[in-house]
Amino acid sequence: MDLGFRGEVAALYRRYRRGYPPPVLDALVAAFTLTRDDVVVDLGCGTGQLAVPLAGRVRGVVGVDPEPDMLAEARTAAGDLPNATWVVGSDADVPALRAVLGTGSVGAVTIGQALHWMDRERLFAELRTLVRPGGGVAVVTNGTPLWQQGSGWSRALGAFLRDHLGLGGDRACGTDEESQRQYAATLSAAGYDVTATTVEYTAPLTADAIAGGVLSALPVDRLPADRAAFTAALENAVAPHAPFAEDVRVAVLAGRRG
Ligand SMILES: C[S@@+](CC[C@H](N)C(=O)[O-])C[C@H]1O[C@@H](n2cnc3c(N)ncnc32)[C@H](O)[C@@H]1O
Asked: Contact at 8 Å (CB) between 180 and 252?
């Protein structure tokens, strides 16, 4: 499936998407007792929002993503990090990863904001033999989409996107409660012990960051042709609600292998 995470969208993603603050990394380390001896696989790593900071906590990180442009941006974001590597692949490649890395060789497999595109039942079953005992799978979501939050600027943004792009407000990308319940139930049915942690914080936002965040969420073939005009109109639509702040709620579902 072509999700359009290519070209300019990959660059926008690296520039504008939020990373994960230290308490999220602390939660992952605590859930799986990760140490400097562990390797972590970040599946659907995108431009490295989770993989790059995780590399500072463990022996090594393997970032896996089907989109070469996203991986190229991740490599740039990683700079001279010596212990992160970037591999083209998808959730269908877990058996090959296990063959290469070894059974029970991995402390954790993290999936940040990407599980909604994966074959979850098959994936969770296959990951049980890739992770070591006490390790596991973490499903991480990084806040509600910008146009679905309760604030004034978010509602204005939602209305603008409906008018200009015909975008409905229903795509929550796994951040909604029903998806979270389903993910937890699927992990549990696959034999993992599941715990849920949330990290909440409020961060200031600029109009440029709102526009960039929106553009980074579009498939590359849906980017508006006149980017400057689109961005100016979007910024105009939200301007009455300045200054902007975003309440971010990061959810970490940790499935621990006993
Ligand atoms: C929204 S981005 C998330 C990037 C990053 N993990 C984060 O938390 O910001 C989703 C990523 O999942 C990747 N992806 C889509 N389908 C996938 C699949 N079946 N297996 C692995 N990755 C996939 C996309 O290419 C994209 O880079």
From this structure: no
